[in-house]
Specification:
The complex is a heterotrimer of chains A (487), B (450) and C (130). Chain A has 487 residues and is an alpha/beta fold. Chain A has 16 helices and twelve strands. Chain B has 450 residues and is of the alpha/beta class. In chain B, the strands form four sheets. Chain B has a seven-stranded mixed β-sheet with strand order 2-8-7-6-5-3-4, sandwiched between helices. The chains are: A alpha/beta (487), B alpha/beta (450), C alpha+beta (130).
């Protein structure tokens, strides 16, 4: 079924929403400043509601089913989070209101900063970054500012292991560093010998994803950190996989210097079809002065009768601002709600069940799919989606065929170090029945790959639309449904 | 609550894995640091947490309970009920990034329509799927221009009338690039400065000139000679815009902009204390490959049915790795959907109407405030829905007194522009009735004349 | 996979044809196969530019990958294949012919001698799999 575009539904003269008439004397905008036409659709409210409702039904979503997307932590999103963010006392506050009128917001943000410090084992937190990638950017900028503050100008390189999160290399180069790859060893850990070889006084730091994108906790993590610290480098922790560590280990305790959180992954704020995210950053005491401004602090201590006054604080050596205002506040409310509902025991249970689910699912699949590293996994694992005796089939085909069984496919072709990778992260919110059903589908597909490979090559068959021609899209570059000059 | 496992199921699962206890799965974690004490308050139920959140919210004084004349980058507009009703469909807000197009056509087509609406609103050819907010979109314009000239032109000229927070963010983004030279002047002449004053700074090293339209002070300035000078020297010009204003104003495309960025919050997104908002980024066709962030393109499946995919992905961080010009990954998908629904619903008629209401009411407010002895309307040029008034005393003090009377006063320009001390930036939207405006003018008179 | 005998190859998958003191450059059949459908080609140099060895001369994008093309020789750019920008698919269909990218007047003709011959390059590709 092809849904018409909003421009195709448009009918001249139709109105979807009326604002009240003006109640003030009329003043005219000079004609020379006016635009000519406004090429917008003309539709009714019914048109709009049906159009977007139709579109919504073409989507897969967490509310519809299982999303075993490696590295994305697509867990169920509690509905209370949505209600919380929409409390008018939160949603109708202006970011520049006097602080006396937004003490509720500031107290909640201060509370969330404290929660995140405690969960990660760090000394200070900023809530400002808009998403994980911006959190990384902030983290690496802090590393750079730290070295510069010590007049240590020789550090020009950042180490990024080949099992790191995908955004890390781009982040490092955005901050003006040269990216140096570090290989993995045969067990999927950072290769210590290579690391020692590369490490010298030109290293500003290491960006470590732990557990890494293979789903493995680095068995030598303390040594890795020590090697980097010995040459004066700092260690950045990519928090994309924090779900596996909640209440299990705190990156700050392990010796990391700075890390970011993906609130929208770990603390279950919905992914929204591609954002908004939120990427707070935590640092040790020696880096606290570099955090982006402002952070939330107590500007007047509480007295016996008066609660403290919360306000904005600019850290003395701040790297500056990375977004307008104070952070993705609506996402912060959702994360606060989620953490409050779980408490320390609930958070630990999240990690335990995420890891239990991942290892259980692996136990159901490992006899039919090649497992490149035979170890106990954390919250996710990576299989090879390819068989020597089914040469036509690739990971992509398995992914597409899964859609016919009503599952979202796993992440494929990442991490790059596993050939035809299928990266599977079940998360803690899936039941044993759901995992069993997914495994059944995966095993059936493994059979089909050998018996009827064409079934996979042409998949999906049961989706609203078939495989799309990406070459055509990239060549023709039709990026708008209607522009005036095309008529 | 959100973990479905029963004890029986857990035992079966552990048996399947071949371990006795869940703790056995964590032996790779150094023992010394395993199972730390986490000092957080114990978990509570939904009813309890909701009561707690209501207490926090009750400690705020939201714009709905006050009368708000504060803007400066975030604006109080009406959000039609249909916007949130559609946004709250789990099929939209609990969907992942549409990397699997066969089961993401809803999100993809909505983004495609968003790209179209923004391109048409701004008079440009293409628009991406969104940036984090207006500030980061502005910064990405700087990054794009830098890469467009392959780092050979290193100068970026910022009009001093660009939102000061956007200027800060642009500096944070670009200071990592070698020898970038960012010129952001002060408003030396207060509001009497002209865009053409920036012309003198443009040379053959200039990659980008950034102006705001309407500017941070609400003015609708004439950028024609500046745009001409920039293009003469081969530089690009970026306009930072307010999307509501474009319901009425000549498009940046017509005025010669190469890049148009802006904050989409006024398009159906709640104030929400500053986020999540919506950065948009539009440009001309010839720069499409320099555009960072996701793009949706139209194509067909094997049966010839029309469909949509993420396209030009080879520019992005996960493929180009350290050579990518931006690391952006998650953006503001859901906020772009809100803006798409808003723009569709209010449509051609409503966009003009809301812009006109803002314009009319702001001009009425300006004329009423200018009548108060001691107050002076500083804005001489055409303005949209924000204007500057010089007040007889400190803005901070005035605003505190206004709060007691139920008003959120305008932005204190002296905080960020010392040359504009005692000057207030007042924002007026369709949410302010004539009655509100009259009461505000009366309140201003009262708090300054005792 | 096709590796013409009259060409020299770099480990970064570019080919070089030496004719007197002029070198013609492009990317190999192996490279285009790895990239899959090429949708975009852009040169990053102009006629008259002086190139260092290993300078980046062009960018190629396919639907799943992006790659920089390097010059395996040093010298002055004397000609650019302008047609490729509009028809980048030639890189897939005719990598050694119509999809030549630039011609360089060699500064140091001996440079090409260190490059692989067809046999060595074919063996090198074999080690990397397909």
């Amino acid at each position: 079924m092809v849904e018409p575009t909003i421009y195709e539904i448009s009918s001249n003269g139709r109105v979807g929403f009326r604002f009240p008439e003006s109640d003030v004397p009329r003043v005219d905008l000079p004609d020379r400043l006016k635009r000519s036409d406004l090429p917008f659709p003309e539709v009714s409210e019914v048109d709009v509601v049906r159009h977007f409702t139709h579109l919504s039904t073409l989507n897969y979503s967490i509310d519809k089913g299982f999303y075993p997307l490696g590295s994305c932590t697509m867990k169920y999103n509690p509905k209370v989070n949505e209600a919380a963010a929409r409390i008018p006392g939160f949603s109708a506050t202006h970011p520049l209101q006097p602080i006396e009128t937004v003490q509720g917001n500031l107290a909640l943000m201060y509370g969330l900063q404290e929660f995140l410090k405690e969960i990660s084992g760090f000394a200070a937190v900023t809530l400002q970054p808009s998403a994980g990638a911006q959190g990384e950017f902030v983290g690496v900028k802090i590393i750079k500012a730290y070295h510069q503050s010590r007049a240590d100008e020789k550090r020009t390189r950042i180490l990024v292991p080949d099992s790191a999160h995908g955004t890390n290399p781009a982040t490092s180069s955005m901050t003006g560093y040269e990216v140096v790859g570090v290989p993995s060893d045969a067990r999927g850990n950072v290769d210590l010998a290579s690391l020692r070889d590369i490490c010298d006084e030109t290293i500003a730091g290491l960006m470590l994803t732990n557990p890494n994108t293979l789903g493995l906790f680095d068995e030598n993590v303390l040594e890795v950190i020590e090697i980097v610290h010995q040459v004066g480098g700092l260690v950045y922790g990519d928090g994309a996989n924090l779900n596996a560590l909640l209440g299990i280990a705190r990156p700050g305790d392990l010796g990391f210097d700075v890390m970011h959180f993906n609130l929208h992954k770990t603390f279950s704020t919905p992914h929204g079809g591609g954002g908004p995210g939120s990427g707070p950053v935590a640092v040790t005491q020696k880096l606290a002065d570099f955090l982006p401004a402002p952070i939330i602090g107590i500007v007047e201590e509480a007295t016996e009768d008066v609660p403290p006054l919360y306000g904005f604080i600019t850290p003395p050596k701040t790297i500056g601002r990375v977004k307008a205002f104070h952070g993705q506040f609506g996402v912060l409310v959702r994360a606060y709600t989620y953490i409050r509902m779980h408490g320390p025991d609930g958070l630990r249970k999240i990690a335990e069940h995420a890891v239990l689910n991942s290892n259980y699912l692996l136990s159901l699949l490992r006899h039919r799919y090649t497992l490149p590293y035979d170890r106990t996994y954390m919250h996710e694992f990576v299989l090879e989606g390819v068989w020597a005796d089914a040469p036509d089939v690739q990971a992509l085909d398995i992914a597409k065929r899964l859609m016919d069984y009503n599952f979202h496919p796993p992440t494929n072709y990442f991490p790059l170090i596993v050939r035809e990778a299928l990266m599977i992260e079940p998360t803690e919110t899936e039941s044993k029945q759901e995992l069993d059903a997914f495994a059944t589908a995966m095993l059936k597909i493994a059979d089909e790959a050998h018996s009827t490979p064409a079934l996979l090559k042409e998949a999906p068959h049961n989706t609203p639309i078939g495989r799309l021609d990406e070459v055509k899209a990239a060549k023709e570059l039709v990026l708008c449904c209607w522009l005036p000059e095309q008529e | 609550m959100f973990i479905p496992h029963t004890e029986v199921e857990k035992k079966e699962m552990l048996k399947g894995i071949g371990v006795k206890d869940v703790k056995d799965l964590f032996t790779d974690v150094p023992e010394k640091f395993r199972y730390p004490k986490i000092n957080l308050p114990p978990g509570v139920t939904e009813m309890e947490v909701f009561a707690e959140l209501n207490d926090y919210a009750a400690a705020n004084e939201p714009v709905g309970e006050m009368v708000c004349f504060l803007g400066a980058g975030a604006y109080h507009h009406y959000v039609p009920a249909a916007v949130d009703a559609l946004l709250r469909r789990g099929e939209f807000y609990t969907a992942y990034t549409p990397y699997q197009p066969e089961i993401s056509q809803g999100t993809l087509q909505a983004i495609f329509e968003f790209q179209t609406l923004i391109a048409n609103l701004t008079g440009m050819d293409v628009c991406n799927a969104s940036h984090y907010d207006g500030a980061t979109a502005t910064a990405e314009a700087g990054v794009m221009a830098y890469h467009h000239f392959r780092g050979k032109r290193k100068k970026i000229i910022l009009s001093p009338a660009v939102n000061p927070q956007y200027q800060e963010v642009l500096c944070s983004y670009l200071c990592g690039f070698e020898d970038v030279d960012i010129h952001s002047g002060k408003l030396h002449g207060g509001l009497s400065d002209q865009p053409s004053d920036l012309g003198a700074l443009i040379d053959d090293q200039t990659a980008l000139v950034v102006v705001q339209y309407p500017d941070f002070l609400g003015r609708i300035q004439d950028f024609s000679s500046l745009v001409y000078a920039a293009h003469q020297s081969g530089a690009l010009v970026a306009f930072v815009v307010n999307p509501i204003a474009l319901g009425l104003l000549k498009t940046p495309g017509e005025l010669g902009a190469d890049i148009v960025v802006g904050e989409g919050q006024p398009l159906g997104i709640p104030l929400s204390f500053g986020g999540p908002y919506l950065g948009f980024f539009a440009t001309r066709k010839e720069y499409v490959r320099k555009l960072s962030g996701r793009l949706v393109g139209e194509t067909t499946d094997a049966q010839g049915r029309r469909g949509y995919v993420l396209t030009l992905t080879a520019r992005e961080q996960h493929i180009r790795r350290e050579k990518a010009t931006s690391n952006i990954c998650s953006n503001q998908g859901l906020m772009a959907l809100a803006a798409t629904i808003y723009m569709s619903l209010v449509g051609k008629h409503g966009m003009r109407q809301v812009a006109d209401l803002c314009y009319q009411k702001a001009h009425y407010a300006a004329s009423e405030i200018a009548k108060i002895p001691g107050f002076q309307l500083v804005s001489k040029e055409p303005f949209f829905h924000e204007f500057v008034v010089k007040c007889p005393s400190g803005i901070d003090e005035i605003n505190r007194d206004l709060l007691d009377m139920g008003f959120i006063g305008g932005y204190d320009l002296g905080q960020t522009h010392p040359e504009l001390t005692n000057q207030m930036l007042v924002a007026v939207t369709e949410m302010n009735s004539k009655e509100d405006i009259d009461a505000f003018a009366a309140a201003l008179q009262e708090v300054t004349h005792g | 996979m096709n590796t013409p005998k009259n060409l020299k190859y770099a480990s970064s998958d570019e080919w070089v044809l030496i004719e007197g003191d002029v070198a013609t450059l492009g990317v190999s059949d192996y490279a285009q196969d790895q990239l899959s459908d090429v949708v975009f080609f852009e040169t990053t140099v102009a006629v008259g530019d002086t190139l260092e060895k290993n300078a980046i001369i062009a960018t190629i994008e396919s639907v799943k990958a992006a790659a920089d093309v390097k010059s395996s020789v040093s010298g002055k750019v004397i000609e650019i294949n302008e047609a490729l920008a509009d028809t980048p698919e030639l890189i897939n269909s005719d990598p050694y012919g119509a999809a030549w990218m630039i011609k360089v007047e060699l500064a140091n003709p001996q440079e090409a001698e260190v490059l692989m011959d067809a046999e060595a390059y074919a063996a090198f590709c074999e080690t990397r799999g397909h």
